[in-house]
């Protein structure tokens, strides 16, 4: 083997190592859900609970989000729940959706989260016992659109008319949690944050899940009926060990909402809420 060929092979090997170091990501399942110090964005103080970083993340999302054409055509909006890894170097790793209403919204939410790497928006990584760790972060990505174009009602025979009230996914004015201002252009941040506070105040970790150290999200669908009551909670993505039943219990405890509005009338609207079961720090 000549010197030049050996040199070429060595160079290729080194480039391969460089590529591996750049592209290697921590698998979502190996990233932690809790740490002594939460990840934080520049300008925010690293600490266990970090509303500063969440506010900066929401601002970044709102400035860079684009409504997919399919969603525009259908007038489809809603909430995408995104889970992503903040690597030890502060960059964004694997990104997944926990809840995706479709129409390209999930893909757009993933694009915006990954955009942080392109924009060189580097986090201060999470720390556990003084060491940097890869962290699993969950955030809502809201898409607020008007309701779909109105269709002319079809004439049906009296016997064919359904007695069940229709349940909508998107309406002119979406339901809002107790105490939140309701209007057609407002964001859903108030409602989402109040739901989070409700969960934090009422959630009880099932003993079976705690003994097995089971952690993860339970996604619940429920309906806000035309009178604002929470009805028909159903687990769409469960994890067992008593967590599914606890998620249903906590959702059922929510107070009466301001119901959704379509064409000037209160209507039933389907909502989706992921509830994260995460072992409290003192239990670890």
From TrEMBL:
BP-aspect Gene Ontology terms: protein transport; transmembrane transport
Example GO molecular function: energy transducer activity
UniProt cross-references to Pfam families, sorted A to Z: TonB_C
Alphabetical list of Gene3D superfamilies matching this protein: 3.30.1150.10
Membrane topology according to the record: Single-pass membrane protein
Annotated family: Belongs to the TonB family.
Name of the protein described by the UniProt record: TonB family protein
Protein's organism: Candidatus Opimibacter skivensis
């Amino acid at each position: 083997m000549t010197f030049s060929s050996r040199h070429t092979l060595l160079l290729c090997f080194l480039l391969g190592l460089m590529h591996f170091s750049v592209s290697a990501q921590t698998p979502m399942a190996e990233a932690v859900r809790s740490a002594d110090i939460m990840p934080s964005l520049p300008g925010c103080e690293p600490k266990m609970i970090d509303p500063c970083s969440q506010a900066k993340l929401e601002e970044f999302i709102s400035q860079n989000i684009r409504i997919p054409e399919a969603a525009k055509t259908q007038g489809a909006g809603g909430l995408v729940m995104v889970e992503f890894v903040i690597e030890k170097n502060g960059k964004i790793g694997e990104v997944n959706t926990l809840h995706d209403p479709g129409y390209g919204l999930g893909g757009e939410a993933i694009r915006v989260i990954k955009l942080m790497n392109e924009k060189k928006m580097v986090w201060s990584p999470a720390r556990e016992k003084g060491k940097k760790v890869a962290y699993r972060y969950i955030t809502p990505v809201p898409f607020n659109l008007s309701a779909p174009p109105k269709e002319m009602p079809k004439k049906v025979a009296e016997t064919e008319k359904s007695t069940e009230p229709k349940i909508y996914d998107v309406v002119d004015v979406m339901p809002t949690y107790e105490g939140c201002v309701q209007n057609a252009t407002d964001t859903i941040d108030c409602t989402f944050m109040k739901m989070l506070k409700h969960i934090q105040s009422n959630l009880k970790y099932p003993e079976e899940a705690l003994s097995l150290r089971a952690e993860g999200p339970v996604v619940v669908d429920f309906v806000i009926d035309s009178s604002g009551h929470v009805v028909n909670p159903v687990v769409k993505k469960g994890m067992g060990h008593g967590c599914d039943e606890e998620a249903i219990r906590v959702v059922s405890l929510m107070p009466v909402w301001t119901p959704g509005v379509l064409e000037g009338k209160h209507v039933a609207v389907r909502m989706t809420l992921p509830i994260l079961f995460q072992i409290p720090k003192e239990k670890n």
